[in-house]
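Sanity check. The docking grid for iron/sulfur cluster depends on where the pocket ends up, so I'm generating a full predicted complex first rather than guessing from homology. Inputs follow.
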Amino acid sequence: MISIDEVRIFEVIEKRKPLSVALNGPEALFPKMQETGNKIMKLFDIPAYIIGDTCWGSCDINTHAADMLGADLLFNIGHTISMETIDKKVIMINAYDDVNFDIVVEKYANDRANQKYKILGIITDSQHLHQLQPSRKILENHGFKTVIGDGKGQLNDGQVFGCEFYPAYDIQNRVDAYIFLGQSMFHSVSIAMSTEKPTFMLDPYFNEFQQVNDKARVMEKKTILSIYKAQEATKIGIIIGLKEGQFSKIKALKFKKSLELLGKDIQLIALTEITEERLRNFKGIDAYIQVACPRIAIDNHFTKPVLSVPQAEALIKVLKNEPMDDFLKLRHWL
Ligand code: SF4
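Predicted complex below; grid placement will be based on this.
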C-alpha cells in the first residue's frame, strides 16, 4: 500500500502558515491525495486543492495551476528526488510503497539460470527506494555481488526516471545484469534500452520476475522504424511541450535550423498534452518531433511518426547519410 509522507506536509503547513495549498501527483495516487487534502482542510481549516491534471514526473510540476488557484504552496507527491523543494513554492513529498520484496528477491536469487550473472546492479523507482538495501542484503547472502549506482542531478542513488538513467548507465561496465525492483515495465525496459545489458524486473505484487530485454528490443525497433518513416517527410512539425520542466524551445529551434538545412519544411507547434487526438487537428504535416518527454514518442502509438529528441538526432544523421549509432544508449534521453 502506498502512503504519502503526510507528517512532512503537516510540518511544512505548521511552519509556513499558507492560506491555501494545492496537491499534485500521478493519477494512481489521486485517492490518497484526496484523503490527504481532506485532512489538511480539517486540521488547518484552509482550502486544499487537488490538481486533477496529469502529472507524470518531477518535470511536470504545474505551478501555473497553483498560481491560478492562488495557492501559497504546491505539494508535488510521489516523485521522490534528491531535492526537497524546486522553488520556494513547490515542496516535493515522498510517497512510499510498503510492499515487501523479500519473496521475489529470494525467488530470483534461487533460480539457477540467474547464477551466471554474478554482479548485479540494483535499480528502482521513487516509491521503492527504501527497498534497495534490504534487497541487496538478500542477494549478497546468496553469494551475489551488488552495485548501487550513484545518484546525479535529481536522482538518488539507485533511482531512475523514465528518461534519465545515470545510476544504471554509469555502472554498466561493473555489472553482469540489472535487477529492477518494482512492477514497472516503463522503467525496466528503459534500463535495458540504455545499457543493452540483461535486465530483470522483480514484481513484488505477483512475486514474479521476468527478463525484459525482448520487450526492449521490440520498442527499439519501433523507434527505428519511425525514424526511417520520418526520413521521407516533406513537412515536419516540431512540438514544444508547454509543461514547465519539459519546456525546451532552444532545442526545438536548433532542430528547425538543422532540418531546414537538410531540405525539410518545418511547422512549429506548442502543446501541453501531446496526444494522437491533438495531432489529428494539424494538416499537411508528415512527421513530428517532440522535444518534451521522450517517452511520449517511444511508448505511445501515433498514426504519423512522432520522434523524441534522441530519435530526432538519429534522423539528422540518417539525412546526412551517417550511421545512426546506438541513439538510445545514453544516460539521459533529453
Ligand atoms: S520527461 Fe517524461 S520520462 Fe522524463 S521524468 Fe518527465 S515524465 Fe518522466
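Relevant for the grid: The first strand starts at residue 2 and ends at 4.
Also worth noting: DSSP finds twelve helices and 15 strands in the chain.
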